[in-house]
Amino acid sequence: MTVTNLSHVVQPGDLVLLVGNDRKEFIVLVEPGQVIQTHRGVLQHDAVIGSPWGETVKTHIGYGYMLLPPSLEQLIRSVRRATQIIYPKEIGYLLMKMNIGPGTRIIEAGTGSGGLTLALARMVQPTGHVYTYEARSDIQNLAQKNVAQLGLERYVTFKLRDIAEGFDEQAVDAVFLDVREPWDYLPQAHAALKGGGFFGALVPTTNQVSALLRYLEPASFGFIEVEELILRPYKAVAGRLRPFDRIVAHTGYLIFARALASPAPVVAVAPPDELEWE
Q: Are residues 187 and 64 both part of a single domain?
């Protein structure tokens, strides 16, 4: 299976984005002899294979679907999920903020449905690696299937573990925590990072942000930043360009920091509802 095909025509094993005139879209792995059942008729995979990218092919009732290579953003949105995924708008930003690229070694916890894992694996190839930790085996199994569907499993090591036990890796370039109480795992994250390495976390509420901020500096993290991203899409119609009436206004807060040279002390952390606020 290929995610990005350099050929000008669709090949067996390609992932293809089908877009109808109604702008409804879905992603299909095309294989010889198979059929696609759509709400607008049946489409033969053999009619798709060999067609030029950007071409329109028709179902048995004459409805047309445009053939497009899916973007990474579309692939992430289409993954099977059992948990809420990190939105592509946050993923794109954190990739830049944490300097994720070819050769990067990064730890991720928790894996969830694997949306961020997919993006990290795409970015670190061919010489980098993603080490992703998850405490639930059923959730991990789904993420493994999502990563394997895109042929990226060679760049990802899945680990079933409570991260309170620490990480196996050392001197990694970056650590990203997508867990409910990231402040509980700051010593473990610091121990795994190289000096000056990138730390990131995502939490949905302001009291979680405050709890994390309280413990970042004592755990030897500096250059701390807190940011929120809001994406406002528009109706792309030339004669009546305007924003969509409804948007996803809030998805989460991003917290970034850098690992400082001094060793991280072991910090006894109280849960947020027991913290004394100044």
A: no
pLDDT value at residue 39:
87
The distance of Cα 101 from the centroid of its chain, to the nearest Å, equals 14
Q: Same domain for 44 and 175?
A: no
Residue 260 maps to which CATH number? Answer: 3.40.50.150
Cβ atoms of 197 and 264 within 8 Å: the answer is: no
The residues, any chain, with a CB within 8 Å of residue 195's CB and separated by 6 or more, are 259, 260, 261
The structure's pTM equals 0.85
- Residue ranges in the chain assigned as alpha helix (H): 45-48, 72-78, 88-97, 115-124, 137-149, 186-192, 206-216
Q: Are residues 61 and 98 in the same domain?
A: no
The whole-number pLDDT of residue 266 equals 46
Q: What is the pLDDT of residues 147-171, one digit of tens each?
A: 998 889 999 999 999 999 999 999 9
Residue 63 pLDDT: 94
**Is residue 277 very low, low, confident or very high in pLDDT (cuts 50, 70, 90)?**
very low
Q: Examine the domain organization and report whether 241 and 197 are in the same domain.
A: yes
Cis peptide before 102 (omega within 30 of 0): no
Return the percentage of the chain with pLDDT > 70, whole number.
92
Give me the mean pLDDT over the 37-55 stretch.
Answer: 93
Copy the structure tokens of residue 62.
């004459």
Q: What letter represents residue 151's amino acid?
A: G
DSSP 8-state symbol, 21:
T
Number of structural domains (the chain) is 2
Residue 157 and residue 104 in one domain: yes
Q: Give the CA distances from residue 31 to residues 15, 50, 70, 76, 235, in Å, rounded to whole numbers and listed in that order.
A: 10, 11, 17, 21, 35
Stretch 178-189: mean pLDDT = 97
- Taking only Cα atoms into account, the Rg of the chain, rounded to an integer number of angstroms, comes to 21
Q: Give one word for 43, left, alpha or beta, with left for phi > 0 and alpha for psi -120 to 50.
A: beta
